[in-house]
Design goal:
The protein is an all-alpha fold and 101 residues long.
């Protein structure tokens, strides 16, 4: 927009000013929106990381529990088999017969 002495503000001047203001406003809004979007992306990523970490911790606990139960079953099964053999030997000595357990 040119400034000339004793010149009135024309329609063309108003259109140029409006165009410039619109461009400036859109550029400012765009920058702010991009900043907010970036901020929200990081917040979402942080929440996702926390959620996945909690899920991994839960799964780790579950896996530990399953392994412990498997070990307990193996030990218990071994003890049951061992006790059956001992009972069978005792029955054979005492009664001369082994029951079909």
């Amino acid at each position: 927009m040119k400034k000339v002495a004793n010149k009135y503000f024309t329609k063309k001047d108003g259109e140029e000013l409006g165009k410039k203001l619109r461009e400036d406003l859109l550029s400012t809004i765009d920058a702010r929106l991009q900043g907010e979007i970036t901020k929200l992306k990081y917040e979402l990523k942080d929440e996702q990381t926390k959620f996945l970490s909690e899920m991994h911790n839960m799964v780790d606990g579950l896996i530990t529990e399953v392994k412990d139960n498997q070990e307990f079953r193996e030990i218990t099964t071994y003890h049951i088999d061992e006790n059956r053999e001992r009972i069978g030997k005792l029955e054979k000595k005492v009664f001369g017969v082994v029951s079909a357990i």
